[in-house]
Specification:
β9 and β10 form a beta hairpin. This protein has one domain: Alpha-Beta Complex (Fumarylacetoacetate hydrolase, domain 2), CATH 3.90.850.10. It is 27% helix and 31% strand. α1 packs across α3. With 273 residues, the chain is of the alpha+beta class.
């Protein structure tokens, strides 16, 4: 069995997304030796190509921020992939747009997004928040070229972490004096995911490793244990994992994320053709 070549796979996946194919066999199904080590090498090669094309890395998205699935998937931590200046956009007054034509089979996820202001001094939640400039609700749009949306964590990482776009809501700037309260709110708040003003699902901050701030801390620790050199830096955005199940989106829909128990402003997304 021939080992997967990261450069060739990066080329294949780039072409698949460009052509909106959805019939790609996951690399793990082709070669049992396709591990996360190789997957991160593919993700790094994709980043090299995007940077060579003039794009800038602006942050990171987290995947598998749910310990309940780690044992079944043979994971010992979460996964991550880069986000870019042409995939991240900011909603205006809490209202964003996403063009359906930009993706093959897109789905939407409600997430919490942090912007880092300084390196993390420690892993406890209050110390982590002390390194954060602001926090906001976000909509991550994920997209998949694998057949029937079936893949393993290594396949996920290799395909840009399925990252298609991130729409960031209005920031809540972190007040040093309010950090203890914000730590509690991030672990306890709930969020409604609504489509065309009808409730689709209710999620919670605890769905991202018991709190999005704990997911952020775990990301920093997990990155430090790997040899690729990936690391969080001041100015980075981090989307900390979905708070709800992923939902398919179509043109003409309007989606909203509304938080309860934390002063994050609602976020609305209109899906255009």
């Amino acid at each position: 069995m021939t080992a997967v070549d990261p450069h060739a796979l990066a080329e294949e996946l780039t072409a698949a997304y460009a052509l909106c194919r959805t019939d790609i066999d996951p690399p793990s199904s082709r070669d049992s030796r396709f591990t996360l080590d190789t997957a991160y090498a593919v993700e790094a090669e994709l980043a090299r190509r995007r940077i060579a094309d003039g794009r800038n890395v602006v942050g990171w998205k987290i995947g598998y921020a749910n310990k309940a699935v780690w044992r079944a998937l043979k994971l010992d931590t979460l996964t991550w992939a880069r986000m870019y200046d042409d995939t991240v956009r900011y909603a205006v007054d809490g209202n964003g747009q996403f063009s359906r034509m930009r993706s093959c089979s897109p789905k939407i996820e409600a997430e919490v997004v942090f912007k880092l202001a300084a390196p993390m001094a420690a892993a406890d939640p209050e110390a982590v928040l002390a390194s954060v400039e602001w926090v906001a609700l976000g909509f991550e749009i994920i997209d998949c070229v694998y057949s029937d949306w079936k893949f393993q964590p290594s396949d996920f990482v290799a395909a840009f972490g399925l990252h298609s776009a991130l729409v960031v809501g209005q920031p809540l700037y972190v007040d040093e004096n309010a950090i203890p309260m914000l730590v509690e709110q991030l672990a306890q708040f709930r969020v409604q995911l609504r489509r065309n003003n009808k409730l689709v699902e209710e999620g919670a901050g605890k769905n991202a490793l018991r709190s999005p701030v704990l997911a952020l801390a775990e990301l920093a620790a997990a990155m430090s244990r790997r040899a690729e050199g990936a690391a969080l830096r001041p100015g980075d955005l981090v989307s900390t994992g979905t708070l709800t199940t992923s939902q398919p989106i179509e043109a003409g829909q309007t989606w909203a994320a509304i938080a309860d128990g934390i002063p994050l402003r609602p976020l609305t997304l209109s899906v255009t053709p």
